[in-house]
Design brief:
Elements lengths: L11 E4 L2 E11 L9 E8 L5 E7 L5 E2 L3 E11 L2 E6 L5 E5 L17 E6 L2 E6 L3 E9 L12 E6 L4 E5 L7 E5 L4 E5 L3
Antiparallel strand pairs: 1-2, 1-5, 2-3, 3-4, 6-7, 6-9, 7-8, 9-10, 11-12, 11-14, 12-13, 14-15
């Protein structure tokens, strides 16, 4: 069982007889208090999809939920659900659009390394690779001679995600994005 300080985003834990997936963690160190940090976590109930906010001390022991990660590919959209296909046995996993609204901005039909999180046979979320490659669909014209470390500009990617990119990037470029920080990493290898 890990301590609260060791838990990362995307981890599934059992808490108050519910299975919750960690979506966001904010660490704070209260002033004038002996002891460690506090970890405020935004969690999602995998059964109901409801948001839960909990605060843990860094030394609190959390129980990991029994889950399986299945490598999958995005297949198609069916109404309010995104359908992913298991890479090994072709099992379809339907995930509600709202449950994966943040993650789906990094995924298209070509994205490799996406895992569907399955708990008790039911798909409950996505585990993204550390970086993905997407195409810039719209951005201001590139500036010739702009250095890679110069100012940045917003770019809309093929999935609808908007991130800041260096001025030398232009529409149609394929770029790498860090999924955890939502940051530009560089041009993708051809």
């Amino acid at each position: 069982m890990p301590k609260a300080s060791e838990v990362k985003k995307g981890t599934a834990i059992e808490f108050n007889s519910r299975v919750l997936v960690v979506k966001d963690i904010v660490r704070s160190v209260p002033q004038g208090r002996a002891g460690g940090s506090l970890y405020r976590m935004r969690l999602y109930d995998v059964v109901t999809g409801s948001k839960v906010d909990e605060t843990f001390k860094d030394s609190d022991m959390l129980k990991l939920a029994d889950l399986i990660r299945r490598e999958s590919m995005f297949s198609y959209i069916d109404g309010e659900e995104y359908v992913f296909m298991d890479n090994e046995d072709y099992t379809p996993y339907n995930l509600n659009k709202e449950a994966i609204s943040e993650e789906i901005l990094f995924v298209n039909e070509e994205t490799q390394g996406v895992h569907v999180i399955v708990i008790d046979g039911a798909p409950v979320g996505l585990d993204l690779p550390s970086s993905v490659e997407l195409v810039v669909e719209e951005t201001d014209p590139s500036i010739k001679g702009a250095s890679a470390s110069a100012r940045s500009k917003p770019a809309r990617l093929s999935t609808g995600l908007i991130i800041q990119v260096p001025e030398h990037i232009s529409t149609g470029d394929r770029i790498r994005i860090n999924t955890a920080e939502q940051k530009f990493m560089g041009r993708a290898e051809k």
